[in-house]
Amino acid sequence: MNAPSPPADPEIAAIVESTSQLLRSLSQRIVSDDSESEHDMPPPVPIASSKLHSVVEGLCEKGDFRNALPVAMRLSMQQPLDCRAAYLLATCLQRLNQPALALGIFGSCTQIEGDRPTPGPLFRAGECLAAMGQKEEAISALETAIDLARSDAEHAEIQGLAEQKAGALRLELQLPLST
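Predicted structure:
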């Protein structure tokens, strides 16, 4: 896999590069099981979570998921109980054709939300399940997203998309259409 070309904005390019280097260093330490190298590695330059969030969202809006991924990983590590951070990370993985990895993180989003889940993570989980060939499970996730979306007009777009995807999957499986 080729390395992504750096973002045009030098500040964003620096954040992507420094975060990528940090993740490579952590990965090398894990692979080599070298606890001594921890002292050799300089601490990462702190970056405010709000800045990381803004960078990830901007890169995702541009469709630059390969550059967004390391920044989303760092954001998620900095804010492990922030559903928005987890959602962005899972979105990057999903868009980079890693539905199984994304599915687990979308599930974490729903767990983080607790007793007030939103339809977005369930809708995306349904997409991931469909991409993995688990169509009946995908329909179930999509129907749950539809039910949640019905309770809030803000989620009308997700409801419509989920209804379309669930309907298409039902046709593929020759199941009766939901009413």
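Summary: The CA atoms of residues 99 and 128 lie 5 Å apart.
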